[in-house]
Amino acid sequence: MSTHRASAWAALPDGITAAGFALVWLFPFALDELSVKTALLVMLLEFFLIHATGFFTAIGGSPKVSRAWRMLALAGLTLFYLAMVGAFALSFGEWWPVLAFLWLAVGKAAWAWSTRPGDGDDAMALPMVAWAGSVVAYLFGAFLTALVPVPRLGMTEEVQPGFGLDGGGLWIDEPHRVVAFGLVYFGLLCAAKLLMARGGKR
To answer: Do residues 101 and 45 make contact, with C-beta atoms less than 8 angstroms apart?
Structure first.
């Protein structure tokens, strides 16, 4: 498999996640009774993981480290952050945040595995662009879905009490916004990776 084709496949986890958010937006109980609550937590975990991606980027884009060693280092970092997420999940008496984090980590690892570092000063260019792009996409999606009118679609006020959400705040009071946020964010990541893979063929 060529490097360019592998890069395109690296967009698959983000595409699947975006499709999951779209499904929850249309049918909030299609996956599970706590689908909306899971979607909200996924976006919180992704925020945490974006911060961790600085380390993933430094390792994944290093031209002096072999692919095998990059994956081992990424696995070590994932286990470290997984322990922190596990403690968070334990405090809430839930186990599914761990699975959500692992799925998000799959998307990061797939990108690190599929991209081959360049040489010299350009070695970190692609990984840094990818990381910066994820930050921009997150901020853009967050502000967009918080400021513009977002339709409820299947997440109507009548079914909202069944989402299992507690507390207050925009995402709790209007959970369709965070689900739309997830669709926008992961959709942008998927599209960007596909465009970068396509551009690499030229």
So the answer is: yes
